[in-house]
Amino acid sequence: MEHTLVAVFDSDIHAQNALDALALSGFSRSDMHINAAQPGAMPGGAASGASDLSRDESIGDRIKGFFSNLFAGADQTGHADMYSEAVKRGRFVLTVVAHNEDQLALATGELNRHSPIDVEDRAQGGTQEAQGGGVRVFPRTAGQPAQGSAPLADDAAFRDHWQSSYAQSGGRYEDYAPAYQYGSSLGAELRYRGRQWEDIEPQARTEWESTHADSPWERTKEAVRAGWERVADKSS
To answer: Residue 236 carries which DSSP code?
Structure first.
């Protein structure tokens, strides 16, 4: 059975280090995602002016949509609200998909090693870390979208890009969807913010080829770039 693990960090460095450690352990970056507020956002979701307030509300909607999608409409205990609020308050929320029990155990241990906080405990005014650390594990239901799945609006944009870039050469959109999703995950990573595609392509290629040996980089790189640019542009 597949599971989604969610860990919240006070520091972007801890979140990124945890993601990098999991990648070195064999997890695909398309199965991992760091949610963070805009660079320079004020703590607590405060804003310095009307334009900042509008921007923060847009970010909040996007983050809430991500978590609502993650919990597939079955958020009976307010997890989507809790985690999106944590992000708006300056926390960094890392989500990871574990495809089997071995990955679940490995990811749980690795995430706890990087000192996540327990936002449920903090929300209740407590100071003690919950048993098992700050990592929460949620079973993935049948038909739940993949971790890297793009929001519906982005999916439509990616289909348009596929139509203009790949349709004439054959193949289905679904064959390229993982590349768009991978690019989206790169665009959301803190370490790549503010950088040019030419700067990140070598590392992106290495990571892609290590986990998608049957999907050549030269065939899919434009889809990866389109995914990266769409998310990176929203974060700039």
So the answer is: -
**pLDDT for 155-186, tens place per residue?**
788 889 999 999 888 888 888 988 888 888 78
Measured between alpha carbons, how far is 31 from 28 in angstroms, rounded to an integer? 5
pLDDT above 60 for 131: no
Give the model's pLDDT for residue 214.
85
Query: Starting from the edge strand earliest in sequence, which strands make up the sheet with 92-98, in order?
Result: 32-35, 92-98, 3-9, 136-139
Tell me the three state secondary structure of residue 118: coil
Distance CA 140, CA 146 (A): 9
Q: What torsion do the CA atoms of 133, 135, 141, 142 make, to the nearest 10 degrees? A: -120
Confidence class for position 118, pLDDT limits 50, 70, 90: confident
d(Cα 227, Cα 179) in Å, to the nearest integer? 8
In degrees, rounded to 5, the angle at the alpha carbon of residue 148 between the alpha carbons of residues 180 and 23 is 100
Average pLDDT, the chain: 75
Contacts of 28-31 spanning 24+ positions with Cβ under 8 A? 28/211, 29/182, 29/185, 29/186, 29/189, 29/207, 29/211, 30/146, 30/147, 30/148, 30/178, 30/181, 30/182, 30/185, 30/211, 31/96, 31/97, 31/99, 31/146, 31/147, 31/148
The helix (run of H) or strand (run of E) holding residue 165 is helix 152-165
Name the residue among 147, 121, 43, 155 with its Cα closest to residue 88: 43
- The stretch 184-200 carries a mean pLDDT of 83
